[in-house]
Specification:
2 domains; 12-stranded mixed sheet; alpha/beta; 231 residues; globular; Leucine-rich repeat, LRR (right-handed beta-alpha superhelix)
Length: 231
């Protein structure tokens, strides 16, 4: 009994001495019939990765007709769509009420209808120079009087004004929320504004290293306790 109590005390003390250890829980999955995967960590950072074209979804809120992460939308705060995808499908992130920043990496060519529509907290959109098509109402929003409004303050396009004019050849209706906030040639990394969002958080894989160290130190402490007991 004394040995067990001593071991527990040592474990508690060692963990308390290691700053910033937080094991991040996450949700993840795969879109059926594709090679597209998604992950959402407990800080609200969402990553859509894989290859190919994402399918369209008919509903933003009904799970049976929506994306595999429909029931997680209220938790999403930032989104990064990897450039290995070609097209982002309809309603992918519409009605994500806490979403503030979305980044479409280089390689993406098409952003589908209502992809980020009705995201009231959305402020920053990062677009790639590879973009060719904005389908109808990508970031559309309106109040009950059908007056369009938005909280978007910057749409960062990773190219020049000439690039935009030459490459983005198809822009659907109701995309004023995108075009009127365009900023050309912003300074950004390929992972967009999500870079550094994990500061101070140790992910599950990294935490195993720390826990291993904790276990070794604890065993050493237990050995000392056992030795004293024998003496």
């Amino acid at each position: 009994m004394k040995k067990t109590t001593a071991l527990l005390l040592i474990l508690i003390m060692v963990v308390a001495l290691i700053p910033g250890i937080t094991v991040s829980a996450s949700s993840s999955g795969k879109i059926d019939g594709t090679e597209i995967t998604w992950t959402l960590d407990d800080s609200g950072n969402f990553i859509l990765a894989g290859t190919g074209t994402m399918p369209d979804y008919e509903s933003a809120t009904v799970a049976a007709k929506g994306t595999p992460w429909t029931d997680k939308k209220a938790e999403i705060k930032t989104v990064v769509v990897k450039g290995s995808l070609v097209t982002v499908g309809k309603n992918a992130f519409s009605e994500c009420s806490a979403l503030t920043t979305i980044t479409f990496e280089e390689g993406i060519t098409t952003i589908g209808m209502d992809v980020m529509a009705y995201c009231d907290a959305l402020k920053t959109v990062n677009l790639p120079s590879t973009l060719t098509t904005l389908q109808q109402g990508c970031a559309y929003n309106e109040d009950d009087k059908e007056v369009e409004f938005t909280n978007i303050t910057a749409v960062n396009y990773n190219g020049t004004k000439e690039d935009w004019t030459a490459k983005v050849t198809s822009i659907g209706n109701y995309n004023d929320n995108i075009t009127k906030h365009l900023v050309y040639n912003p300074v950004q990394t390929n992972s967009g504004t999500n870079s550094g969002t994990d500061s101070g958080t140790v992910k599950t894989g990294d935490s195993m290293v720390y826990l291993t160290i904790v276990a070794v130190i604890a065993l050493c402490g237990m050995a000392v306790v056992v030795k004293k007991v024998r003496i």
